[in-house]
């Protein structure tokens, strides 16, 4: 990393960034030689110090075909985007927080699917709530075992800068 002053190596800070994000991009090794990247809803769980990212998909499709060929994957999450203006220099940059990492994917067996979906739902809803279990047999639940990750941020306040966050 060129800007080591922006690197985040603390695991709890990395997990806080992951928790703040609502989309995780997963890159798979494409069968045509190009990476295949997909934005996904996700959940995160730490089991005995091991970080896992949970996902769901249909029972068939390109993602699953690629995972069967090569279970290695890379992921990326980012949040807190804001445009930072430097009036004196007449320039700008972007503020952000992000985490990238890599690992291997495993498809969960039927008996673990509900737990995986509960983890995914917990990411978007702090409280537990009932949901229909009827679609579970028609759903594939998979997780990425994180083997390495690093975070990065650009959020320092400096004199002479002003910030603009786009309305959503």
Task: Provide structural commentary.
20% of the residues lie in helices and 46% in strands. A hairpin with a 5-residue loop joins strand 2 (24-29) and strand 3. The protein contains 3 helices and 9 strands. The chain has one domain (4-164): Electron Transport, Fmn-binding Protein, Chain A (Pnp Oxidase, Chain A), CATH 2.30.110.10. The model has no long low-confidence stretch (mean pLDDT 88). The longest helix has 15 residues, at 110-124. Strands 1, 2, 3, 4, 5, 6, 7, 8 and 9 form a 9-stranded antiparallel sheet that branches. It has 168 residues and is α+β, with helices and mostly antiparallel strands.
CATH domain class name? Mainly Beta
State the separation between the terminal residues, measured CA to CA: 31 Å
**DSSP strand count:** 9
Estimate the strand proportion.
over 45%
Query: How would you sum up the global shape?
Result: globular
Sheet of most strands: 9 strands, antiparallel
Low-confidence stretches: none
Number of helices: 3
Number of domains: 1
Instruction: Give the helix level as a range of percent.
Output: 10-25%
CATH architecture: Roll
Order of helices and strands: EHEEEEHEEHEE
Classified in CATH, the superfamily is Electron Transport, Fmn-binding Protein, Chain A
Structural class: alpha+beta
Task: Give the averaged pLDDT, no decimals.
Answer: 88
CATH topology: Pnp Oxidase, Chain A
CA radius of gyration is 18 Å
Protein name: Pyridoxamine 5'-phosphate oxidase family protein
InterPro entries: Pyridox_Oxase-rel, Split_barrel_FMN-bd
Pfam families: Pyridox_ox_2 (PF12900)
